[in-house]
Structures are given as C-alpha cells and as structure tokens.
Amino acid sequence: xxxxxxxxxxxxxxxxxQLHGFAAELYPICRSITGDGxxxxxxxIQSRIPLQITEVPTxxxxxxxxxxxxxxxxxxxxxxxxxxxxVDFHQSNLHVMNYSTPVHATMSLNELKAHLYALPERPDWIxxxxxxxxxxxxxxxxxxxxxxxxxxxxxxxxxxxxEDGHLAYGxxxxxxxxxxxxxxxxxxxxxxxxxxxxxxxxxxxxxxxLLSGKSLRYSYRFLFIPGTIGAITWLARNRENxxxxxxxxxxxxxxxxxxxxxxxxxxxxxEIDQAVTHVLRDCGEPSEILEFSPYGYDERQYxxxxxxxxxxxxxxxxWGTYPExxxxxxxxxxxxxxxxxxxxxxxxxxxxxxxxxxxxxxxNPYCEPQLGKRGLYRSTGGEAIATEINAxxxxxxxxxxxxxxxxIAERSGLPFATISDAAELLCQSGLLAPIPSGATFxxxxxxxxxxxDKAQQIRGSHKxxxxx
Amino acid sequence: xxxxxxxxxxxxxxxxxQLHGFAAELYPICRSITGDGxxxxxxxIQSRIPLQITEVPTxxxxxxxxxxxxxxxxxxxxxxxxxxxxVDFHQSNLHVMNYSTPVHATMSLNELKAHLYALPERPDWIxxxxxxxxxxxxxxxxxxxxxxxxxxxxxxxxxxxxEDGHLAYGxxxxxxxxxxxxxxxxxxxxxxxxxxxxxxxxxxxxxxxLLSGKSLRYSYRFLFIPGTIGAITWLARNRENxxxxxxxxxxxxxxxxxxxxxxxxxxxxxEIDQAVTHVLRDCGEPSEILEFSPYGYDERQYxxxxxxxxxxxxxxxxWGTYPExxxxxxxxxxxxxxxxxxxxxxxxxxxxxxxxxxxxxxxNPYCEPQLGKRGLYRSTGGEAIATEINAxxxxxxxxxxxxxxxxIAERSGLPFATISDAAELLCQSGLLAPIPSGATFxxxxxxxxxxxDKAQQIRGSHKxxxxx
Amino acid sequence: xxxxxxxxxxxxxxxxxQLHGFAAELYPICRSITGDGxxxxxxxIQSRIPLQITEVPTxxxxxxxxxxxxxxxxxxxxxxxxxxxxVDFHQSNLHVMNYSTPVHATMSLNELKAHLYALPERPDWIxxxxxxxxxxxxxxxxxxxxxxxxxxxxxxxxxxxxEDGHLAYGxxxxxxxxxxxxxxxxxxxxxxxxxxxxxxxxxxxxxxxLLSGKSLRYSYRFLFIPGTIGAITWLARNRENxxxxxxxxxxxxxxxxxxxxxxxxxxxxxEIDQAVTHVLRDCGEPSEILEFSPYGYDERQYxxxxxxxxxxxxxxxxWGTYPExxxxxxxxxxxxxxxxxxxxxxxxxxxxxxxxxxxxxxxNPYCEPQLGKRGLYRSTGGEAIATEINAxxxxxxxxxxxxxxxxIAERSGLPFATISDAAELLCQSGLLAPIPSGATFxxxxxxxxxxxDKAQQIRGSHKxxxxx
Lengths: 468, 468, 468
What we know:
eight-stranded mixed beta sheet; four-stranded antiparallel beta sheet; homotrimer
C-alpha cells in the first residue's frame, strides 16, 4: 500500500487544507462547458501537474453530438426603474443561467419573470441552471430577491457571446510499465459550486500529483473535462484506444460531510467495483455501494452499452439528494478540508489495490509447504496462529490461478494489505509466483461468493453473445 | 398495456358481476371429468367465445393413462325406513361421490356407513369426493346429517351409468402474427364448486373474449378441460406441437377474497414467471410468489419433466389451505365479483407484458444520443429529471441485445409500462430497433440480479445436458 | 438409511459408553507424531477393526516435507534442590513438550524458566505444547506449579530419544462394489487429550466397525494418522490414487457437549457438503455450517489446491474456541458418552445418504404416470395427499438426470429418507431407473437454489480453466 503509506506521513487535515485552498482559488471563476473560465481553470491545474490541453473546434461531430459554440460572458445585471442593481453577475456567477444568449433590453416584470429562476423552499439560495443546447437567456436569484421585485420596467443585460471557438479539456497521462490504463475522470465545467465539482477536481489533481514521477504498473490517465459533451468528445477522439482502460473512476461530490457512496460500473462485477468496495469497507467512514444506473455523471458515457467500460463513480453525498446540490449553498463552507483529505486517501488506497492486485500460482500446490523451515510459521505448536500466518495459508490455498489477491482478501475476511504482504513474502520464499496479467477474475460478496465466483468465471470464458 | 387499458374503461366490479353471473348459471350443473355436465358447460362457454369441442373415445390410450368410461347421473338418494329422503342428489350434486357406480339396494346403517363421507370439524358442510379410477359408490353429507342417522335399514339409490362414451374438452385458439403460443388452461370438471373452478373458467373465458378478434403478436390457446386426464389427453394428442408454447398459465381458485399466489413454473426463471411476478408487484393487492412443486393443478402435467413447459399457476388462496376448499361452502357467496374482475385485470396485464416484452438494439450505443435535440430531454439543465426521461436512459443503456424490457423494468425498478412507453418513443425517434424474436432471456430479482442474469444467460446458450 | 437403522437398535448412550470406554483405555498413552505411543494406539485399534499399519522411514521425502526422526520418551521430571519431584511425566504426559530433545542438567530457576509453559488465565490446567520441527525441550505445568517454584537450582531430566525410525499410520480399507472411495480421516498423534482427538479416533473406529463386512456401494478408507505430517505422508504415497476419493470427512473434537459444526470442503458445493448439511439439519441437535478456511485439521492437506478433494471436517465445538482446547482440561470428563454416541449416528446417517444418493431417470417423463393403478396413490379423490405420495411426485418430477435424491430432498424440503424410499418404490414399480454413477451434481440451499443449481451444473460441464 505504497501511496497510502506515502500519504500517511501527513495528517489528512493538512493535505485537505491544501486541497481546500486550491478549491478556494478556483471557486470565483465562471466556468462553463466551453469558454475562458475552463481555460483559466485548466491553466491553474497545469501549474501543478503535467497537463496536455486539447482544444476541439465548434462544429466538430462527436458521435450523435456536435461541439457547440463557445460561450463567454463579461457582465450581466438586472436594474430597476431607479437604476438600482437588483441582480449582479459580479456578486455571483450563478445569477446568470449558464450559456445565456446576449440580451440588453427593458421589459415589464411580467415579461422578465419568464426568465427568472428561484427556489421558494430555500429563499436565500440562488439555483444553478443551464441551457447549453436550447438558445435561451435567464437569471437565477434567491426567492427573497424574487419577492422584492415590484411592478415596473427593468433593464436586463447579459453581455455574453456565443461564437465559433473551441471546447477545451485537460489530460494528464502518467505512463506505467503496462499500456493498460486506469482512467480517473472529473468534470470541470461548473461555475461557483464547490462540492460539484471543485472537490472532484482538486482530489483528482492531488492524486495525479501523488503518482507523478513514480514507477507504476498501470498507466494512469486523468481527465479534466466538461461534463457530458467533454466525455463524449474525448471518447469520440479516443475511440480506438478505449480498450486499454482496465479500471476507471469518476470522482465527484467528494468534499462534503457525508459518508462515501460508490456507484458500481455497468458491468457490476469489475475489479474496480471489487477494489473500491474493499477499500471503503476498511476506510473508517460509513459507506454505501449503489447499483449502476444510467443517470449520473460521466460514467453515463463510459458505461454506455457500446463501450461498457469498467468505470464506477465515487462520491460522498449523492447528487440530488442534498438540498445544497446545484445551489449557491454548495459553497466553500460546504466542503471540508478533512473530508477532502480523507477522500484522497481512499483514492490512493484504491490505486494501491489496483497496483498490487494480481493472481499468483502456488508452486507447491500439493499439501501445505513446510512454512516452519522457512521461518514463516510459529515455532511452538499447540497455540493459536497469528493473523500473518493465517494470511499465508489463505494466499497459498487460493493461489490456484483463479483467485486474485482481492478475491482472497474478500473470502478470508482479511485486509487486502495483509494478504498482499503475505503473498510478497511467499514470493520471496519461492512458494508463490505471480501470474502474468491477462484476463482477470472478479470475486463477489457474501455467502454466495463461491457459487457466484464460478458463475462469473464461466462468464469470463464463455462470453454471452450480444448484438452490435 | 393495450388490454389493461381496454378493461380500464369499465369498473372491475361491473366486469366482475358479469363473471359472477356466468358462474351462477354454471353452478348447478353436475360436472365430472366426462359426461353431459361438462358438455353443457362447454356449450355455454361456446355461446360466448369461439370454442372447438373435441370428443375423445373411452379406451383411448393417452401416455400412461386410458380415457375412462363416460359417467352420467340422473338421480340419487338415501331413504330411511319411513321412506323419508335423508340425502337427495337434487339438493346438492356434491351428495354423490363423483363417478359413483350405480347402486339400488337396502342395507343396514352399518353397511351404509362404509360409503358415507362427512366432515366432523365442519358439521354443516358437505365434502366433495371422487373415485374416478377405482370403482366405488358413495354419498357425501354433512356431519349433522350423519349424526341424525338412526339404526335401521336404508334404501340407497344412485341412478348413474358408466359406459363407453367420450371425454370432451374445449379449445379456443386465437391466431396471432406468430405461431408461438400462449397457453391458458383451466379445469372445468368440478360440479357445484365456485372458486374451484368456476372462477378460473369464467376468467379464462372473459380473457379469451377480450383478446378475440384483436391483432395479436402471439397465438393464444385457451383450454377448458377436465383436470388431470383432460390435460394428459390434450398433451397426448398435441405432443408434436407443444414446443410452440412459449408461455403458459393455469388459472384456478381466482375468485375468493384472498390475495394472489403465483406458483412458478418448473423452470423457475421463465419469462412467464418474470411477467406474472412483475404484474403482481404493481397490482395493488397482496401477492406471494411460490416455488414450483409437483402437486397442484394441471401445471403438474405441463411441467412434467418430459415437457417442462414454462407454465405457472395463478391463484388467489392456495388450494387445500382454506377450509371451504372441496366442500359445499365453496359456493357462489365464496367468490366475489370484485375479486373476479381484478383477477381478470391481472391476466390482461400479463398478456400485455408478454405481447410487448421484447429486446431492442440501441442504434447509438456509443455514448448517450443527444435526447435534447429530439425533444426527449428537459430543456433547462440543473434540475432533476422526470421518470419518463429516466426510463429512456435505462432503455438506451440496457438495450444491448441481452436485456428484455422486463429485465430493464426489474433492474430499474420502474413499471413495465413506463419502460415500454420509453422504448416505443425511442423507436419512433430512430434510437432503438426491436430485435426479432428468438431466444429470450430471463431476468431475476433482488441485488444478485446481475450475477444471476449472467448465469442464466449462460444457461441459455450452453444447455445443461440431460438424459432422455 | 441402513446403518442408521442398525444403530437405532441400540440406545446412543449405550454405544457412547463403549466409545468412552475405549477412549479411557487410550487416554494414558503418550502419543506423538511418531514413536511407540502411536504404535500401541494403532495396535489397540487393530484389535477392533482390520487395520493395515504402514511404517515410513525417517528421512523419506514427502512433498515439501521430510519424515522426521522418531521420538520416544521414557521418563521426565523436574526436581528441586531437596530432591522433591516438582513436575513428573508419569503424572501427566502433557508435562513434557512433545518432541522434546533429551536433557539432564541442573540449572537455576531463571535458566529453567525459558523452557516452561503455563497458562496464567487457567492456573490449574497444564497446556499442551509441541516442537516437532525445531529442536527444543520444555516442560508444561500449571500456573500454580509455576508460581510455587522458588529460587534455587533444579535438576531437569527428559529421558527421550530422537533417532532414525519410522512414522506409523493405520489404514482400514473396506472394499465396496465400486472403487470410488469415501475417505474418513482422524489424527491419532495427541497424547492425553480426550476431545482432541480420542473422540474422533473412537468414532472413526466404530464407524469402520459398523460398515465392516457389509455390502457397500462405495469403498471406504479410514485413516488413523499423525496430524499434518501423517496426512502429507499418506498423500505423497497415494498420490496416484487420490482421484478415487469422491467424498471425505475429517472427524475431530466430536465428543464434547457442544452442538455440531461442519466446515465445508474447499470446493464448497461438493456432495459431501450437501450430505452433511442435510443430515445435520434433521439430527435434532443445534448445528452450524462453516465456510472452508485453510487453517484447521488435515482437511488443510486434502484441500490444498493441487488436490482440492471434496473433504470437509465434522466437529462439535470448534478447535481454539473453547478454553479446554489443548490443555489438561480436555480430559475424559470433557467428552460425554451420549455425545459420542450421537456423533456416530450422524456419521452413519451421512454414510447412508452417500450410499443411497443417486440420480434416477423417470421412465414416463411425459405427464404423470397413473400412480393409482399401481396402488401408489390415495383411492378417494378430493382429500389432501400424504407426505409419501408427495415424495413420489417430487421424485418423478425431478428425476430428469440432473437432480440427485439429495437435490430433490433439498428442493422439496422433505427428509432424504422419505425421498429415497419413494424412489425405491417407484423403481420397483418400473417408473424410475437409476442412472449409472458418473459425474454427480451438487444442489444448493435456499431460495436461489434453482439458479445456482444451474450455475453449478454449467460449471460441471464447462470446467473453469486453472493453471497448474
């Protein structure tokens, strides 16, 4: 558990404060799926980790979609008849519906109201609204502001532009000894919203920083992309290489005070699902595993049936289930340094498991090897054995080519690190040998594990026919 | 959900009253597995739906069985020494053991008692007894009648005949666009017993009436047959065509006040099992799913190992578990119009699911298609999505050739109709295309669904070797 | 259930008293993994059942191990400065660490203490300790004895020898009509410890005695061996024939007052696992089924990945979980005649199930055969059917080549004996025929049984590729 150990040198609160500090720098920027806000954001990430930035021109076809016009905004306000600024973009970039077309006009309250969005049940908060693909303009304001609007004419101004330009995304690629890839993806298109998704952005960047320059088994690809259209664009441009992705995670909403939620990949039994489940079980915080569903973040695209990549989504509180979601209350107070730091630790733990998870072959498969003569057993018989010795017995017994270390950890109930340490020691003693990577086998939870393992292993070798 | 909608125009109580009225007409007839009682019954069904009646001669070999002599009865009584009618067939046809041989004799109470059947624990009720295959005669009477019998001689008379004749059954075949068949079977051999099985008979006839003259995907075959020997006779005469049956239901005991019970087919994972389970889940009444067992109604024959057809059994209260079962208390008051009407609705719902359940192919399987430009998405981003949109995402994501709409409904937790509507809309938009019928895949319940789906799909393509 | 019936003639308490009497004869002997103690033990077993004794020379290579020097001991004591015997081997053979090297010396209390073992938390009990493979000597004594040791010099004497010799084990082979084998294994290397494992030894010997001279379907092999090295030695010498073992049990710790525990084989779904689970379910005592783990008794060797034999372990209280384990408190009072007798009954029940468990073919698979004309059904219709008739319907319905009688017993919820009796009767009536032995199918528990059966049957025909 190399990266977890490296992180362990520092208090998670200290690390989390750095992450929170970075989030605070990024918070004021008005981001969208295109435009200068996201460019500034990518540049700030690039100052911390090696990042290749790609600009894709407006009008480019990406599967069923088209890269849209680039949106930029300079100013926006609503003034009342007395010239008083009622709503001002410079106070909060949430005030303007994202992708609003330019407008400068005077109109009655009634006309204006068709373009106003508020949350009656949360009278102090400004909602976050977008209209990327349907030309429209609008203002978001607190319900209190809405109530204060008297009859009369209002001057509305949105000084924005929608023009041919580019969609930008950032990519940090860390080559490992294998071209098999681990994908970590976060969306970076939301304006002043902290949990959704400066939390995911900062944790992703910190994870890339942690792995950067290290000797790695897998190659790692960190994507900082606009949600939906960014993932679709990246997939369209990298369609041929997507098969390299062995494991993937979407990181989002990972800084709030809630416990962890992991939404499984569409495959549902992938190694990433097994790895995250295992790490969360021992992380010391409450956690819940959710079945895959096709609504959510960019796992929607990675797990579309044509790709069906093993990509899950790690969150704390689930989008849409907390009132602050997509409002001005998802601010810098809503995300907490300690939670950010702990989220990074979980991610590092997942990387450690993926890096170390292998299948081994028992080189003495007939009866137990004599561990005692190798100093790997207790010397006085009759007493109970230690966990470390138990882990060696498990690693020997299940290293039959069918079980990975994660499978053994699950079946034995022992932590992955204990099993992994045992396997390493047994390798050094010539009792186990790693099996070269190739087809991997997924294990499964609970008491039916054995039977389901079998069912899954069969699945592995006898692919279900699907149409394409 | 075409047929459910058509039924929905009428209050289930009104429909149920019609069903109950038909049951009341049929109730007085003394039916048996052969004879004029069943002929009159079939004729009355034939006046409502197109029915082909088959007469199979006594002595015909049907697998391990032989069509028995035809039984008819005109009169039966027990008179005491004073000439008083103690028991009279014309008061209740249950008084005579069904298939009693003719007898006319005078005998002592002691001799008579060997031929009397009563229910001490239910002193007012007459039991229902039969002796089809062992020549015998007997009277069934209430325990109170039994107790009132004094010493002395009794005149017993059963004016019945057992002669070469025929076994009659009725068949209503509604051709659909495919020769693949749905089988609906009910037994029509019981005399004055209402729930068992005038309830099944009337609901089956009403379902046939509902589907008659309509454009159908499947062909439907409704069997009105004597229990056991009727099903065996039909199977023996149709052995070559039985492979056309894709889905089947035995309907019985479906008019009492109890909740639904569905006994799964021997296969246990057939589409009919999945469909009925799904419909019952949303039917608004309590319901319970029972594992297959080899005792019961004619599913015993359809699910014998040589056929192993996907035929389940839909009931309300389970035979043998309620005291009125097989007694004179299973009368017209025991079945309720509202329950009959609701049972018909459930059957119509099952037909709707079978008719509409298909697998589809996502024609844009790489990433989500852009629903917004087709008017299939919300226009303002940032808010939650409606159930209808969620259903579209599910239908797109799982239309990979392996999942049927029922599978998608189960996995998403959404009603079948919502998923089916979504699929239809997506077809109209050119995003989905139906996959021609052929091998179907069954889904499964609960959290293990994914794994078991796989196991089952494997089963589909790699048949388990069985001996024959 | 032939052997269970034979045992049933005698009160289990009476049989248990005989077993306890034999344990009492064996109790005083100082056994070890080699030496005269085990020879005397094997000779006493040989006086009761036919036993072939094998002596394997010191130095023989057995897989990763080597047969050790033979250990014998004549005397051992600790004397204080006054010549008083503080610790005396003749009072309890547990006082000497098993396999202690010879020593005769005078030393200070401090020097001595490095060689003393006691249990502070159980001040009256002597622990059991061994040092087979690391040359050492030691004394085990009660904590009270330990506390009573004053400062001063002590004379220590262990009159033992470690010399070239032999490792002895006993084997009772009862040939059956098939060379397919059932293996029953117990370790016989522990000195004065009653539950671990005179209980297993005496029950194994009694089971062999019960089966001896009888006509048997399987061949039975009873192993009386030193733990670990004995099993390894036997496996090394019989490597070529191990494939004959179809079912196996390790019997240990089977005489104490606790309920039964069965640790499943590594396969986890073997017929032995199914059989023991079924027998325990109906045994009238509490029981628990444990998943396989690689620590325990000689199932460790039989279930090593190279062999992966279907061998489970039947116990009462689980080793290591009760305080008396591996101490002088595991004495003749700790094992109870009634428990020994009942344990033998469970073993006999398992043998009965294995002997009788077969798959049958329904010779009338199309519809039910007419049981009534063969006197196998009730004669009066309308009433409930008896359990015996229900068992016949189950046996007919599931005798499709895929289900064994055990599978049918599990799926029907009826006792194995009821299903087995039904199958025998149906065979006599020409309705079923046994399928010649060959690949067997395992069933499985609970509501997912059907699906998992399928998964497992698939597994049977499509072997998972493993490396070797």
